[in-house]
């Protein structure tokens, strides 16, 4: 007999003795409670293992969908969206964001992004990313002034997406004819030391084109 089988049999025998002792000392009510605890523990362990297996399977399915999506065709986009309908919230959001980035059809892309943004239990960072991606597609079709106002919560100081949000906000303001507001928004980008250099550079170029170059430091 293998050692692990021996220890398992000993463990099972000890459990039977414990249950028998409980039955003698406290009656069948205590015994039923002990059995319930054992069953609940077994169920919890089983649930955790099933969840781990499910996450592994989901990761593999998402990777397969991503590989198919490399071609960027409509079928690949649909594969990602089909996966998202059955996936857990995190994987579903990632699949929809990826599908929206690949989709050439505006309505398909916006529908996927709106689904991520509207998910009440979704990750806030992913929801905000979906809002920004949708805003970039809506600048040419929605009311630009209203769009700029909707972006303001994402453009606040300290916001994780503020740099991209301000760039989109300035574009919407320019489209709405709000030059002074756009200049102020672009200055917020150039004056933010944490903004990526590429974004600061583009903002400075736009300010130059608008005749309102950023203030150069003399120090």
Whole-number average pLDDT? 76
Give me the number of helical elements.
9
Note the overall shape. elongated
Tally of strands: 0
Question: Strand percentage, roughly?
Answer: under 5%
Key terms:
219 residues, mainly alpha, 9 helices
Structural notes for this entry:
With 219 residues, this protein is mainly alpha-helical. Among the domains are: 31 residues; 77 residues. Helix content is 77%, strand content 0%. The protein has nine helices and no strands. About 11% of the residues have low confidence.
Please give the structural blueprint.
Blueprint: H1 3-69, H2 74-86, H3 89-102, H4 106-117, H5 124-138, H6 144-151, H7 162-175, H8 179-190, H9 197-209
Question: Short summary of the structure?
Answer:
With 219 residues, the chain is mainly alpha-helical.
């Amino acid at each position: 007999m293998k050692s692990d089988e021996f220890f398992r049999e000993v463990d099972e025998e000890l459990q039977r003795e414990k249950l028998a002792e409980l039955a003698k000392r406290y009656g069948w009510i205590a015994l039923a409670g002990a059995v319930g605890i054992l069953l609940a523990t077994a169920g919890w362990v089983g649930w955790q293992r099933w969840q781990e297996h499910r996450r592994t399977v989901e990761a593999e399915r998402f990777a397969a969908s991503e590989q198919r999506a490399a071609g960027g065709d409509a079928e690949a986009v649909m594969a990602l969206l089909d996966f998202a309908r059955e996936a857990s919230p995190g994987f579903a959001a990632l699949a929809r964001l990826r599908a929206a980035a690949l989709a050439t059809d505006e309505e398909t892309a916006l529908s996927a992004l709106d689904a991520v943004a509207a998910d009440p239990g979704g990750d806030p960072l992913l929801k905000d990313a979906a809002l920004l991606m949708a805003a970039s597609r809506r600048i040419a079709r929605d009311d630009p002034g209203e769009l700029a106002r909707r972006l303001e919560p994402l453009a606040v100081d300290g916001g994780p997406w503020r740099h991209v949000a301000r760039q989109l906000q300035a574009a919407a303001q320019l489209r709405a004819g709000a030059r002074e507001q756009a200049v102020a928004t672009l200055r917020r980008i150039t004056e933010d030391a944490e903004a990526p250099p590429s974004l600061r550079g583009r903002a400075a170029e736009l300010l130059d084109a608008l005749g309102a170059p950023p203030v150069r430091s003399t120090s």
